[in-house]
Design brief:
The chain has 1 helix and 3 strands. The protein is mainly β. Strands 1-2-3 form a 3-stranded antiparallel sheet.
Length: about 70
């Protein structure tokens, strides 16, 4: 089933990210296919060797959460 049109969330499964740039009003994502996307937020769920994490310059080692609670 399709999500409601007003949800405005798009999930791109299997899309390889090659670059992420945070700008003052949006995030620009470059995919391996060469396609560019713009969004207000990006969720990088690509593991401990995250392309998103490296692109944002987050230092240190990855961390594992023993418990995750979403309210």
């Amino acid at each position: 089933a399709e999500p409601p049109a007003d949800l405005r969330v798009r999930v791109r499964e299997g899309a390889a990210v090659r670059g992420v740039e945070v700008l003052s009003d949006r995030v620009e994502i470059t995919l391996a296919s060469g396609e560019s996307l713009a969004a207000q937020a990006v969720v990088g769920a690509d593991g401990s060797g995250s392309v998103v994490r490296r692109a944002l310059g987050w230092p240190g080692r990855s961390r594992v959460a023993g418990t995750l609670e979403v309210l």
